[in-house]
Amino acid sequence: MDYVIEMLDIRKEFPGVVANNNINLQVKKGEIHALLGENGAGKSTLMNVLFGIYQPEKGQIRVQGKDVNITSPNIANDLGIGMVHQHFMLVDTFTVTENIVLGSEPKKGLKVNIEDAEKEVKRISDQYGLKVDPKALVRDISVGMQQRVEILKMLYRKADILILDEPTAVLTPQEIDELIQIMKSLVKEGKSIILITHKLNEIMSVADRCTVIRRGEGIETVDVSQSSTSELASMMVGRDVSFKTEKTEATPKEPVLEVNDLVVKDIRNVDMVRGLNLQVRKGEIVGIAGVDGNGQSELIEAITGLRKAESGKILLNNQSIMNLKPREIYNHGLSHIPQDRHKYGLVLDYPVAENMVLQTYYQKPFSSKWSLNFKEIYNHAKRLIQEYDVRTPSESTLARSLSGGNQQKAIIGREVDRSPDLLIAVQPTRGLDVGAIEFIHKKLIEERDKGRAVLLVSFELDEIMNLSDRIAVIYEGEIVADVKPHETNNDELGLLMAGSNKKEGEA
Amino acid sequence: MKKLNLLLTMLLTLTVILSACGTNGDSSEGQKDCEPDSSAIKAGIVTDEGGVDDKSFNQSAWEGLKAYGEEYCLDKDEMYGYAQSNQDSEYESNLTRLTQQDYELIFGIGFKLKDAVQTVASQNPDTKYALVDDVAEGDNVASVTFKEHQGSFLVGVAAALKSETGKVGFVGGIDSPLINKFEAGYVAGVKSVDPSIEVDVRYAESFSDAGKGRQIAKSMYDSNVDVIYHAAGGAGNGVFTEAKDIKAGDSEANVWVIGVDRDQYEEGSVDDSNVTLTSMVKRVDVAVQDVIKRTIEGNFPGGEVLEYGLADGGISVADTNEEAYTDEIASKVKEWKEKIQNGDVEVPQTREELEGFVSNLE
Amino acid sequence: MKLQKLTGAWIPVVSIIFGLLAGAIIMLLFGYNPLAGYIALWNGAFETPYFTGETIRLITPYILSGLAVAFAFRTGLLNIGVEGQVLVGWLASVWVGTEFSLPMAIHLPLAVIVAILAGGIWGFIPGYLKAKYQVHEVIITIMMNYIALYSVNAIIRNVLTDRDDRTENVAETASLKVSWLSDLMPNSNVHAGIILALVAALFYWYFIEKTKYGFELKAVGYNPHASQYAGMSVKRNIMLSMAISGGFAGLAGAMEGIGNFGYMTLNNGFTNIGFDGIAIALLGGNTAVGVVLAAGLFGVLKNGALNMPLSAGVPHELVDIITALIIFFVAASYMIILLRHKLIKLYTDFKNKSKKGGANK
């Protein structure tokens, strides 16, 4: 009875793909066990096998030492296995308690006994320090809270083994810290946790042991305390990974983008950008650092023509582009890697090839007077797929079925290939694994070296510090500081982002 | 919870199936104890969108045909039958269908079938057709019309006598020459009794939308109208619903409906009372049977227009609701009926004629 | 047993068989002969050239109304207003057909084009309101249906006629009836509109799949945000899509106006051509071929069903249930795909188990 979960020699095939090839996973009681792998390595498949969503072609599963045959999530639940999916399965208009009891409602005759359920939810919440209000409506609580509701749901169903699928992907840094505390207290109370992730920092800070999967194969299980991020990273990617992106000193030339006294309102008619000034020159990467919601989105949308600017000036190559249509602005030499690739970057139900001409489909050679020239479109895609290492079965594969990293590479290929004078990248590596991040960072620096101006917006300080030649700190719609990365550090930047500079100036 | 839903769904399904069984009566009427009359002809009707259970003239026509079937001891679908149309475009199909199934005499019920009857009749000169409610051309087509304006005049008289508020209403189906005939006769009847009575005339723009009929009835009753005559087919059912609703809430309420085409006494029954004052009965059944008989006798009135009116019983005023339709009203109606038959009164058929009629009264 | 081969084209066929079986069970339950019922259905649609012609005549506007709904749907818009656009197109074609006297080479195309324009304008209005003021197109199109219904009636009554309940017949020069078709299917109302409808389906396919405009419309339909970010005008595409959708519907109206009837009567209620178009579009998966096939299914069922009460004695109400069941099963082919998966799994499980001989446990 050493292990609460043992998955031995698990093999799962999908038509044409071996998703899991003889993988072993052994989880001890009371540990946090990380499952590490790149996007598409087979982590989720393995967990879906454990949770009864898929049946393996081969292999054995033991829970608490007993051979079991998990053919449905219900059986998994009965065995004390609970899973928190990346996308929450909650009913927005129900209360926390209603969501938790959904499917196993305590009955009083025909009526649902919600009072007792609320008490029980409160008790569990207190026991593990979840601080969830049982009566709140799910749509009124934050994403972090909703995640705790999902965890509560598992605990309410008496789960002893919790599977958390990329739990931090949707959380703010502060929420991540809180989640780590919650995970630790769960383990203290005797629960076991399987943590699916590709973020090395998290593993280092919370996991006891770690199993690495690469391309469907189990690589190794290691004690985290005996290992290091670089070791884990190279196991995951299969080669050495550098975290510090190598780059030469920038040699900026004449300005490409000039923003003067820009004012932009948001949808509620509140000034979000308040007299902002910014300059981006040829051959430099300017990183905009700031806490989300300080006007970054509005600034970018105003520059790209997606939102009306109230007043000020936006010059691209000395020509005003303020309040032109997006298409006109693109034709002035601007490319935009938008922040949410699913929502803004891709038409997921279009093939990769068609996504790669999303701005240029109407121009020659992709289009004649009326009709599209599919031959050219597909040839164009073939070239970009090769140049930007987009891993896709073919050009006609739907964008939806690509992994996140490959979707992002497709977007970057599309935007960079238009040889823009100004490249705007917003959160370009969000949710990607180290391999993809490395590739994208390299590409951005390459563009800089070719003499393009790059404007980078990111909420991750490491990324800003790594990539930028200049850092412009945005606070409440204004640039409050312009610093060089080697002349500053995370702490100072953090203070600037919190508005310390501005307050001093005002005082 | 899921099980309960399943149970409910199953119960509901069962109910639907059982209730559908209930309506299945007329196809299993059992053995007959008579021999079919060999002189009988194969006759059928094509209804408009109302269908044979529209509680109005389609139903009346079908009742006439069924009566013929019983009289001659015939089997349904063998020697007599109907085809129901759901859309305007189905009239021709249905007429042709019956023609190709060797029906000898086919009725098109309703003025909307005029074009279809004319077209199909010209394509099939050996089959006999009859159009009810309008005049069609062709040697093999008989046209059956009714003097609805006369009947409407008489129920107008009844409405005027019954009204206490001095306001009566008319709800028409679609604003068209045929329904205008009802309107003109009705208004003339009302004004003949008392020119000061107001008549609120409105159209539902539909013969099937009961909701619309009910809405109009509600606004009329709300504005003090106490008697409504409807010539709106299925939309008129909404008038009955509204009147019955008011009556059910307040048994003293003075609201009345005058039915059309058939005696709509049944439609008006609410608790112990009844809101149907009377009905302008248009005996489509009588006409159907009459045309069939003439055809059997070898006198098919091809190319002719048969106009049924008060004299031959093709048009009458129902007196089923004895409580409401008092002797006083009955005798007054009878007076006016004689005047019409004598030719003392020329009942208007159009709005123009009505204007002249009303100005003569003053 | 090659269940794996049961894919693609076979699924709708199996669905129809399932629907027919379900209908048969209903008929049996009520004591009717299902075989006689289905023979009557088939005969009703195809027994003689006349009925074949009538079936084709019925399919014609269905193809177009289906395309109309499908077109808007590809841009992510639910055009419930096809019904009203059909009425407007019908009226427009009859207006041109009755009020002008021109040679056929001008008259007929003019009637068709004016009908398309009328329907297009009627579709453009909700598109404009949606694009400019974000009013939901479902609400406006429903209301526009009523406006169309009553306005058309008023125009027939007061403008095209003097308080009559139907218009004049359209001139021969504006009629879609052609002698070679009528000779092929004598006495039926089949008309050259079926060719127009098929051409329209071809146009639909080409426009949606091959042109840059179709590319934009679809992109907006799939993801308006990404389309806007890529520099497309979402508003312009919404208006364009609704206008073209309305154009298809207007053409469907012309099929009735200058094809089937040759006149227009006061409408007692909606024609249902537009509402059936919604079902046809969804059934056809919003593709050109799918819509043509679904319209065919609707036409055959609707026309054939008229014969069931007469030839097989099945009551109307039951016929409606049976046709609805058939359509339901086709629409629910997803269920059949699922069932297929289960069967395959059961089969392979069984095979695996018998191979292992239970040694695993």
UniProtKB/TrEMBL annotation, chain A:
Domain of life: Bacteria
PROSITE patterns on file: ABC_TRANSPORTER_1, ABC_TRANSPORTER_2
Pfam name, any one: ABC_tran
GO molecular function: ATP binding; ATP hydrolysis activity
UniProt keyword annotation of Membrane present: yes
CDD domains for this protein: ABC_Carb_Monos_I (cd03216), ABC_Carb_Monos_II (cd03215)
Membrane topology: Peripheral membrane protein
UniProt similarity note: Belongs to the ABC transporter superfamily.
Name of this protein: ABC transporter ATP-binding protein
Record organism: Filobacillus milosensis
UniProtKB/TrEMBL annotation, chain B:
CDD domains per the UniProt record, alphabetical: PBP1_PrnA-like (cd06354)
Location within or outside the cell: Cell membrane
InterPro entries: BMP_lipoprotein, Peripla_BP_I, PnrA-like
Gene3D superfamilies in alphabetical order: 3.40.50.2300
Presence of the UniProt keyword Cell membrane in the record: yes
Domain of life: Bacteria
Swiss-Prot/TrEMBL keywords: Cell membrane, Lipoprotein, Membrane, Signal
Membrane topology classification: Lipid-anchor
Cleavable signal peptide: 1-20
GO cellular component, as recorded: plasma membrane
Pfam families recorded: Bmp (PF02608)
Domain ABC transporter substrate-binding protein PnrA-like, residue spans: 44-349
Family (UniProt): Belongs to the BMP lipoprotein family.
PANTHER family cross-referenced by the UniProt entry: ABC TRANSPORTER GUANOSINE-BINDING PROTEIN NUPN (PTHR34296:SF2), TRANSCRIPTIONAL ACTIVATOR PROTEIN MED (PTHR34296)
Descriptive protein name: BMP family ABC transporter substrate-binding protein
From TrEMBL, chain C:
Transmembrane residue ranges: 9-35, 55-73, 80-98, 104-125, 137-156, 190-208, 238-258, 278-301, 321-339
Primary localization class, coarse: membrane
UniProt KW Transmembrane keyword: yes
Keywords: Cell membrane, Membrane, Transmembrane, Transmembrane helix
GO molecular function: transmembrane transporter activity
Signal peptide: none
Domain of life: Bacteria
Compartments, record wording: Cell membrane
Keyword Membrane listed: yes
Membrane topology: Multi-pass membrane protein
Single GO cellular component term: plasma membrane
Entries under InterPro entries matching the protein: ABC_transp_permease
Protein's UniProt name: ABC transporter permease
Organism: Filobacillus milosensis
